[in-house]
Amino acid sequence: MVGLGQSRSKLFGAWTDNVRAALRGGYWNNGSNARAGFALNLNNPPSNANINIGFRAASPNCARRRYPTWISSSALGKGVQVPVAPETRPAKNINRQLMASRLRPSWAAALIRGVRKIAKTYTNLYPRIYDFQNLELAYMKARRAKRFQEEVLQFSFNLESNLIQIQNELIYKTFRTGRYRYFYVHDPKTRLVAALPFKDRVVQHALCNVIEPLFEERFIPDSYACRVGRGIHAGADRVMQFLRVTQHKWDRVYCLKADVSQYFPSINHAILKAIIRKRIACPDTLWLIDEIIDSGGDGGDCSRGLPIGNLTSQLWANVYLDQLDHFVKEILREKYYVRYMDDFVILGGDKRHLWEVKQEIEGFLADKLDLQLNGKTGIWPISQGIDFLGYRIWPTHRLIRKSSIKRMKRKLKAFQRKYREGKIDLEKINATIQSWLGHVSHADSYNLRKKLLGCFVLTKGGDAYEENEDEPDNPVGR
To answer: pLDDT tens-digit profile of 244-258?
Structure first.
């Protein structure tokens, strides 16, 4: 086999030599009526030929395989292929071999069976980040839906001078991340959110405008968090599609549902920086990335944790667990896998096999990413439904989570009380309700919407919203 360390010209020359030696004219057995000008057979004398024009593969296993086997790699150049011996080809089912022999210390052995794609690194990115047009675009993105906030209005009042100041700070590397403003969000669960000044948000948008496409092209299609063209609803649709496929494939289908314990506070900065450096080799860009990462240590620990609320935190979170995505898809060879940030689902037809997959994933997260799964991880039949992305999903339909329904009931009561006291206006109430309707409309929720909103009345007098506790939490109308 041709070595990967050789130059492309040498690789291409070796490949063409192999092709010349591998091609012979005619059929397997040739007749004796030779005639010049037709197909030549390299293993026959010139006097022997046939009237068939064509080529066949000169292979020691010609009786079993008609054509040569090839492995392609973008690392060898577009259109270049290398012939591979049968014993070096990837096994048909690497997953079974991994699980049978418990090859966690030997993951590299599974990779060398085929030609591994060499990741491309990028340099000279920094001038594109502080380019004035890129800063203008970053400002437009950062102010979206916030243009009338006080700090945005102050920044916009002297827009050109503020953008030039950011540009100079980036050019001379005097930029320092501003002070975070922390607050808690209690819906659906309590989270500590960190907010940066508007100037820092512009810088992060400028950085992501340049580097996010470089990482995006490496992400797998079944990662749905914080990506353009994907999201909660696309992820739920994909899970339903997998459920329908697997239901026809296996008699019983099981689901491995897992999520990472305390994901954002647990991200290791040293591991994250090493992963980023596999893709980016521009020293100035890495300086800015390190400045932002080190500014957001959780609880004062500068070596661990990303602040929830940063634009870059969403990108780094996807980059970090992209390592898990490729491990599950390429090494474990799990086809029915969907991830949304730190939550993921794997479908399979063998419960014991899924427990083995869970153990392999736990080992990979602990050894390579310094993470662990939480106690809610489990495996169960899909007949119980999959609680994922705000829905309870079955192959035939999906419903809204009961916890989501209870939260909305509490919000509607709070809206009535605040509106009666004059503490909230109709515009904010309508925005919240329309957002919730956009979510529940992707499930079988007609009767639910009719029940909740049919008796929701806003008055300046008494509370007009009465809830009947005897009615089911999640009526379904299809």
So the answer is: 999 999 999 999 999
Tokens of 149: 């906030």
Q: How many residues does the chain have?
A: 478
Cα 370 from Cα 266, distance rounded (Å): 8
Q: Return the structure tokens found at 195.
A: 């907010």
Could you tell me the pTM of the whole model?
0.71
Q: How many CA atoms lie within 13 A of 212 on its CB side?
A: 16
| Closest of 416, 409, 389, 410 to residue 400, by C-alpha | 389
Query: Three-state SS string across the chain, please?
Result: CCCCCCCHHHHHHHHHHHHHHHEEECCCCCCCCCCCCCCCCCCCCCCCCCCCCCEEECCCCCCCCCCCCEEECHHHCCCCEEECCHHHCCCCCHHHHHHHHCCHHHHHHHHCCCCCCCCCCECCCHHHHCCHHHHHHHHHHHCCCCCCCHHHHHHHHCHHHHHHHHHHHHHCCCCCCCCCEEEEECCCCCEEEEECCHHHHHHHHHHHHHHHHHHHCCCCCCECCCCCCCCHHHHHHHHHHHHHHHHHHCCCCEEEEEEECCHHHHCEHHHHHHHHHCCECCHHHHHHHHHHHHCCCHHHCCCECCCECEHHHHHHHHHHHHHHHHHHHHHCCCCCEEEECCEEEEEECCHHHHHHHHHHHHHHHHHHHCCCECCCCEEEEHHHCEEECCEEECCCCEEECHHHHHHHHHHHHHHHHHHHCCCCCHHHHHHHHHHHHHHHCCCCCHHHHHHHHHCCCCCCCCCCCCCCCCCCCCCCCC
Cα–Cα distance between 270 and 306 in angstroms, integer? 12
Do residues 346 and 334 make contact, with C-beta atoms less than 8 angstroms apart? yes
CA distance 46 to 235: 64
* Distance in angstroms (rounded) separating the CA atoms of residues 238 and 222: 8
Which strands make up the sheet holding 386-388, listed edge to edge? 386-388, 391-393, 398-400
Which tens digits make up the pLDDT trace of 270-323? 999 999 999 999 999 999 999 999 987 554 567 888 999 899 999 999 999 999
Which are the contacts of 330, defined by CB distance < 8 A and separation ≥ 6? none
Give the span between the Cα atoms of 96 and 104, in whole angstroms: 13
Of 446, 355, 340, 349, the C-alpha closest to 388 is 340
